[in-house]
Write a structure and sequence with these properties.
219 residues; Nucleotidyltransferase, domain 5
Length: 219
């Protein structure tokens, strides 16, 4: 098929979100000033096996129009078709997004991974990396400060090809990626054939009903 394969995911990063550890005097819990302001940013991101990261962020709830704009940015100027695997977020299944995918059938196909199975998508690791290894360990002052820190963190991650590729090395995602590579190597021309192959593989791989309904083509 000669297509690129990407995994798309969305994540929310709040001003009050916190995790991680820090240094402090022995026997005395450290105190770190943080903001009690509500709000935050929502992130749409896509990563590929080659270690590339594309993203967009918004200070409001992600809707179908923002999703459609992100899809347009992903395929604009791309020399090869893009197969995008994603979750069942409502905006992914909206009429506006479906119409966009149908209108760009030669450039884009979108497939849904099984519901409630985030471990199958390496795209989930973008949000985990930002929230639990970066932003959540910083004393964010307010939403504006969070936006600046989030932007710098994403720009830094874009340049860390090896780190992005490591998101594909979890046991569940390795199995999915190897099967996708196999499908691409035998040059199946029909996207419906891709659907059938992946459906068969994931049902076999999971061995339970959790994976019975997989990869519904939105286009």
């Amino acid at each position: 098929m000669g297509a690129d394969i990407g995994f798309e995911d969305e994540a929310g990063v709040g001003v009050m979100t916190r995790s991680g550890r820090t240094w402090g005097e022995a026997g005395r819990a450290p105190e770190i000033p943080v903001s009690m302001e509500h709000g935050g940013y929502n992130l749409l991101s896509m990563i590929t096996l080659e270690g590339t990261l594309r993203y967009t962020m918004t200070g409001s709830k992600v809707n179908s129009e923002q999703c459609r704009q992100f899809l347009f940015e992903l395929i604009e100027g791309r020399p090869r078709p893009l197969i995008l695997l994603t979750d069942h977020a409502s905006f992914h299944q909206s009429q506006a997004v479906r119409e966009f995918v149908r209108a760009h059938r030669s450039q884009l196909r979108v497939f849904f991974l099984p519901k409630h199975c985030p471990e199958l998508s390496p795209g989930e690791q973008v949000g985990n990396e930002i929230k639990h290894n970066k932003i959540d360990k910083q004393p964010v002052k307010d939403k504006n400060d969070l936006g600046k820190r989030l932007f710098l963190t994403l720009r830094s991650l874009q340049n860390r090809t090896k780190r992005i590729q490591s998101f594909f090395e979890l046991p569940d995602t390795i199995a999915v990626i190897k099967w996708m590579e196999y499908i691409n190597s035998i040059k199946i021309l029909s996207f419906q054939s891709v659907f059938r192959y992946l459906h068969k593989f994931l049902c076999f791989y999971a061995g339970n009903n959790r994976y019975k309904y997989v990869l519904a083509n939105v286009g």
